[in-house]
Amino acid sequence: MKANPLISAQELSNLLDTASNLVVCDCRFELTNPSQGLQLYNDGHIPGARHVDLDQVLSTKGAAEQGRHPLPARELFAQKMAAIGISDDTQVVCYDANDSMFAARLWWMLRWIGHDNVSVLDGGFKLWQQGGYEVTTEPPQPAKEGMLTLRDSLTQTVDYDEVLANISAAERLVLDARSPDRFRGENETLDPIGGHIPGAANRFFKDNLQADGTFKDAETLRKELTASLQGKKPESVISQCGSGVTACHNLLAMEVAGLSGAALYPGSWSQWSNTGGAPVAME
Q: pLDDT tens digit string along 147-174?
């Protein structure tokens, strides 16, 4: 069953009281302090939520030329999702405290293995707390192993060679989710080289959000994203960022806006900038 890509705090609160097959995933994480996410989870989380770590679950370790957060094998990821109780008919809700950037990664990855019944908590943990909803430090009951079938992917990916070939072909638009200064090659602190992929356009992922951290409405997102796509159809768009995480935020926003079909470049700038001879633009 396909779920709405976003769910409100009130809707999730109702589900916690009524749903019989629900798994809530806490994806909080800090890039500069990888252990912080688990600490935040232990300090308080949505009742029953399972902690899902970016480094341990939502990516794998690899060589620098693979990027900072390479995707794990689909089979391994499916096994880890089953281990926290997710089955084919499970409704999944994911959240974080980082403008939904890590929750969007889990949303995309579940669809990557064919599971479409997944939503992101709009406004994340911050809005949940502000709404006065329950927070607990109690660990959830041990999960019963789920029966999660690895199915056809509901998403698309492209690799380095495809992105490189597109620079001259110009058939697809690379949409970079990083901040405008990093896109211009300024203030680069995470990757060895600043700049962007030649021909790419910039859509900062935080531009998808309102001041309170919730996503803009579908009509507004559709108008803004259509302008960002520069006349390209969604299915000819390649979403990219620093390491393939916030690129998923733009893909989520596109889904909310009804602009489905774009692909993810998982290696993103962290792979591109670690590949000898990769062309770089600074304008």
A: 999 999 999 999 999 999 999 999 999 9
CB atoms within 10 A of CB 46: 24
Question: Which residue of the set 25, 27, 94, 241 is catalytic?
Answer: 241
Which H or E run contains 174?
A: strand 173-176
* pLDDT tens, position by position, 170-197: 999 999 999 999 999 999 988 999 999 9
Q: Please tell me whether the overall predicted TM-score, pTM, comes out greater than 0.90 for this model.
A: yes
Determine the straight-line distance between the first and last CA of the chain, rounded to whole angstroms: 44
Location of structure tokens 């399972």: 50
* Residue 25 is a catalytic residue: no
Amino acid at 100: S
Q: How many of the other CB atoms lie within 10 Å of CB of 171?
A: 9
Number of Cβ within 10 Å of residue 31's Cβ equals: 18
DSSP letter at 46? S
